[in-house]
Amino acid sequence: MIDTNKSQEGQPPLPMQGIPQPTRDEVLKLPRVHISSHPVMAHKMTALRDNNTTPPDFYRLVKEIGALLAYEATENLALDTSTIETPLQATTGYRLAGGIGVTPILRAGLGLAEGFREVISDAQVWHLGLRRDERTLRALEYYNRLPHQIDLQVCYAVDPMLATGGSAIDALNILKRRNIPRLCYVGIIAAPYGLLKLTQAHPDVDIYIAALDESLNDYGYIVPGLGDAGDRQFGTF
Ligand code: PRP
Ligand code: URA
């Protein structure tokens, strides 16, 4: 169990200490924010948050939640139509127009991206490595495999945790330089603070999340949250 709110006497202030945060109610009505209300999602989220869930089960749950979120976040994708033949007669068929990109923000976004690919198997995966410096809470880029040839109708930046919003904002800034027609952010748990910052920085981006939690603690961890999503997926405690 992480000790999330212990302040050290004589030490510099903790990164979120004394920083005002919006409430859940203040961000619930933000435009372009979609929060899942599906009972299956609530069921899986409970298992995911549980401190007794082991890394293999945690990873499986992240993938399953990723698939559910992919289904919700692709609700308004554009389609091309064509005529196809069934064994009985001709009929109109539909295919997703243009390519679909998924950008897992490493490393915790890997499980979510796997879940996405179970719904859209031919999605391109564009890896982007961002690591949050736990002292300053700033995101640092350490890996970038975004392709130069772009032919996508949409790219989904996926990362389980939207805490201060720094990693998500930076990831979308990087993706925006690739001139992709539409960008979405998909996450599992958001804090009101990060959600507000993200919508302020990228008001044109749709955001799909499974849950909106109460706040960030002084260390910048989401509470109640689920702890460290990367460590819990990969067993690196
Ligand atoms: C976590 C998480 C997000 C980020 C969220 O990753 O997966 O990327 O922190 O925090 P923020 O909203 O304050 O930027 P972390 O940097 O711990 O790296 P990891 O995925 O390798 O564990
Ligand atoms: N990153 C995590 O993995 N968990 C949090 O609560 C915040 C950032």
TrEMBL record:
Gene3D superfamilies: 3.40.50.2020. The gene is upp. It catalyses: UMP + diphosphate = 5-phospho-alpha-D-ribose 1-diphosphate + uracil. SUPFAM superfamilies: PRTase-like. Residues 36-236 form the Phosphoribosyltransferase domain. Pathway: Pyrimidine metabolism; UMP biosynthesis via salvage pathway; UMP from uracil: step 1/1. GO terms for molecular function: GTP binding; uracil phosphoribosyltransferase activity. Keywords: Allosteric enzyme, Glycosyltransferase, GTP-binding, Nucleotide-binding, Transferase. This is Uracil phosphoribosyltransferase. One of its GO terms (biological process) is UMP salvage. Belongs to the UPRTase family. Catalyzes the conversion of uracil and 5-phospho-alpha-D-ribose 1-diphosphate (PRPP) to UMP and diphosphate. It comes from the Bacteria. Its EC number is 2.4.2.9. One of its GO terms (cellular component) is cytoplasm. Residues 1-10 have a biased composition (Polar residues). Signal peptide: none annotated. Residues 1-22 are annotated as: Disordered. Its cofactor is Mg(2+). Pfam families: UPRTase.
